[in-house]
């Protein structure tokens, strides 16, 4: 049974007590009070109006109440003024920090550091719970292989294995110690399921994923999150194969409840029940309520369809009251597991004590540091040696943009607490360097005149080095902020070229919510750090990296395309019958008037070449790491054995540094076509200069299982390649066989 409460064997007794208390409450509830528990509304009207509705038992959960005093007032209406005294569940989108903002989730995934991500989620939960928030709509577990999709910023990228690890870490961090912990915040695994594959990278759009694709790629992170104890699941906006998630009984009942044994709560996304009418899947809101409850949705977020229609549907015999009872049971179970019945109120003074603490800021700084990916470092320009410089020009629209640095979906982040790169370099080096500043553009999309660009070149030539901070404003990524073109916006490419014309060394830092198509821009910078949106402490982290107080260790959690037209491009693609060899003619090499033939043709783009700009898992360091050929404990395994793989890793440079060591496999022949590589594990390994270490992995053969031709999950016998490498395109493989 995939229960949400998994702390210890003693939880069995606690669960029985909870079930008994739920039974007792249900036996006393009217239909109206049951329906009220399924009704989630956002903050509206006056506190008096809300209190009146709550005391009548009409609301089970509220969104966006963040004043601790208001939370206590509303809880008092629920606990002391309603007939049954059922507490409210206060919810908020706490996506990558509450007050102390960490890098966006895509940036967090670049750390390949689940322990640090768990710590970040724990800090977010401590801060948010101090405001009365006990439920967050995170982690987002959508596999995201299209950077045009704005919500890729909220994801852990394109890979199921990495997304599993990051999602499970967030669940553990948010939920902490469970019912006895007043800082525990219920996690929500979203969006169930396939949302990241929306057509054209457009939000809210359709998907057409087969059951095999769902089970092999899109569902594993959700199962891992639930096994880690995630208390809630959110349905997704998309329809898949014509069925909206909010009305999909196979997904929410047959799979989630019956097959996986999940006993937590399922909530719609904002108005996704009502939007089934717009989809054309439901005739009206009454029909939407009937289909949502039949599918297995417990709580309706802001559609009002349950509140308006469930009683009528039950009285008409179109909905069995047992379905409503089951939904209420799941809602109450979460409230009991959070300890809300025993401790509904909060200490209104606590929030001042737990936000922006030294520990919180240090963790956010470390996460920003580990999330930055070094993509270019010509001539080993970085790290800069401050003792050899007299002056530095800090430039670009994101050099001192505190709100933009926080990134998307930061309702509660405060720009006044953001430390920008400009502020950080002034604080750290202002006493020994002449530091100039020129934003040049007021925002990333601004168009600059030739005269402005020429003036910048002249200004830049007066400094010893240029630190250029560019990318995307926060509003250009996230929900409903999808792009058809991924080039740098405004005149930022031209700004890079203007910096290059100064003749001085150029270090570029890109802050963005997604991969951008920067192939044409690389020649105009000596070094490039991709920092995504790094959060509250992004400035100090980036200055530490640039000047060598820290060494880059981030790796790309998503493939970077050369051009938008390559999308979708991801590392774990299937092998085609005619794979490219890399020796084919490109468009500039194709003779005019050449004859058309299919003989010898392969799968590639004439105008984009044979692969991505940067592959998944890629990232440079200030040192070089050498990988020996992987070694296995034997060559033949059975499906119930564990593969012991190892590789000698050597730091050949002059700096201590951390490498993300990645283990990939390929199933050479399957009952269905298998990916060319699949990430199965990873390690962060820190080595001193010249140090070597044997990095060991234990890979249960069961991790090689997949849903094959017969739609059964199993390990198929055959030959497998195994790599231990620094990214998804490098390394030497070794062979083993499953008998």
List keywords for this structure.
739 residues; alpha/beta; TIM Barrel; Rossmann fold; Immunoglobulin-like; six-stranded mixed sheet; five-stranded parallel sheet; 21 helices; 17% strand
Task: Please describe what this structure looks like.
- It is a single chain.
- This protein is α/β, with parallel strands linked by helices and 739 residues long.
- The chain has three domains: 96-350, TIM Barrel, CATH 3.20.20.300; 372-546, 3-Layer(aba) Sandwich (Rossmann fold); 625-738, Immunoglobulins (Immunoglobulin-like, Sandwich).
- It is 30% helix and 17% strand.
- It contains 21 helices and 27 strands.
- A six-stranded mixed β-sheet has the order 11-16-15-14-12-13, sandwiched between helices. A five-stranded parallel β-sheet has the order 4-3-2-1-10. The protein has a five-stranded mixed β-sheet with strand order 19-27-26-21-22.
- Strand 26 and strand 27 (734-738) form a beta hairpin.
- Helix 16 (358-371) crosses helix 21 and helix 18 (421-429) packs across helix 21.
- The model is unreliable at 1-7 (pLDDT under 50).
| Structural class by SSE content | alpha/beta
- Biggest sheet features: 6 strands, mixed
Counted by DSSP, the helix tally is 21
User: What is the name of the CATH topology of the largest domain?
Assistant: TIM Barrel
Number of strands: 27
* N- to C-terminal distance: 31 Å
**What are the segments in which pLDDT stays under 50 over at least 5 consecutive residues?**
1-7
CATH class of the largest domain: Alpha Beta
Look at the structure and give the mean pLDDT. Answer: 96
Domain count: 3
